[in-house]
Amino acid sequence: MSSDGRPALPAWRRTTADERRWPVALAILAAAGFQLSLPDDVVLGSRWLMPLVEVAVLAVLVVANPGRFEREPGWRRTTSLALTALVSVANGAAVVRLVRHLLEGWGADDPGTLLATGGAIWATNVIGFALWYWQFDRGGPSARARGDRTVPDFLFPQMQSRDIDPEWEPTFVDYLYVSFTNATAFSPTDTMPLSRWAKLTMLVQSAVSLAVVALVVARAVNVLR
Questions:
Q1: Which helix (DSSP H) or strand (DSSP E) does residue 193 occupy?
Q2: Phi, psi (deg, nearest 5) at residue 193
Q3: Is 149 exposed, middle or buried (0-12, 13-18, 19+ CB in 10 A)?
Q4: Residue 211: Cβ within 10 Å count
Q5: Are 119 and 217 in contact (CB under 8 A)?
Q6: Model pLDDT, residue 4
Q7: pLDDT at res. 5
Q8: pLDDT value of residue 65
Q9: Angle at Cα 72 formed by Cα 66 and Cα 75, nearest 5°?
Q10: Strand, helix or coil for residue 164
Q11: What is the pLDDT of residue 89?
Q12: CA pair distance 54, 45, nearest whole angstrom
């Protein structure tokens, strides 16, 4: 309760402490590691190129602000979005090349490499879209911490009841969960997209995930037979 007797606003609707950087940094490092594990056949240029660029950009952001996502100047916000785009573009290119190679019969002699490649691309897809959801929901991490926007792009279950912890607010882990469930169920589960951009982004993620899973599994089954 607030001092005047009215119910206090939940944490996600008021100003709170800025989100910590380390979960996002770990996710980006994991994505770079998955990309590094891909064979040269499915990557843009050298398989070292994009992971090294992503780690270098991440290092700039961490050095500039290692602790929390405090009110970000324009250049940091732009650089953060560019880093997310790098992860997605690199993985998108890998998806296109993998699909093309599978249609041409690639992987027939090494099902282990085929499954590992598909798994790495799928996992990077989960991380990449989690970053987009986290970057844009209610204006991004800094805007959410300030409570600038009260209308969410994603409706989490905790937002729908005052009986749940009033100190709860979404962090990167919540968006990673949304991305994972969307990539496995090919549809929203407990968290609903409200804005059109959120719906369309989830649609694209589901389509990419379905293409990778369906083609890789089908090819692996043929090989194992």
A1: strand 192-193
A2: -75, 135
A3: middle
A4: 15
A5: no
A6: 47
A7: 47
A8: 82
A9: 95
A10: coil
A11: 94
A12: 15
Distance CA 206, CA 213 (A): 10
What gap in Å lies between CA 99 and CA 42, rounded to an integer? 9
Contact in structure between 119 and 15 (CB atoms under 8 Å): no
**Which pLDDT value is given to residue 40?**
85
Handedness of CA 41, 42, 47, 53 (dihedral sign): positive
Look at the block and give the residue holding tokens 């549809």. 187
Q: What is the pLDDT of residue 164?
A: 76
Half-sphere exposure of residue 200: CA atoms within 13 angstroms, side-chain side: 3
Mean pLDDT in consecutive groups of 10 residues from the start of the chain, 225 residues: 58 83 94 93 85 95 83 84 95 90 70 85 96 94 86 91 81 96 91 95 94 80 62
- In sequence order, the 6+-apart residues with CB closer than 8 A to the CB of 11 are 166, 167, 168, 169
H or E element in which residue 154 lies: strand 154-155
Enclosing H/E stretch for 168? none
H or E element that contains 124: helix 111-136
Reading the block at residue 202, the tokens are 């989830």
What integer pLDDT is reported at residue 112 of this predicted model? 77
Q: What pTM value is reported for the model? A: 0.90
**For helices 74-103 and 196-224, what crossing angle results, to 10°?**
30
The structure tokens listed for 192 are 């609903």
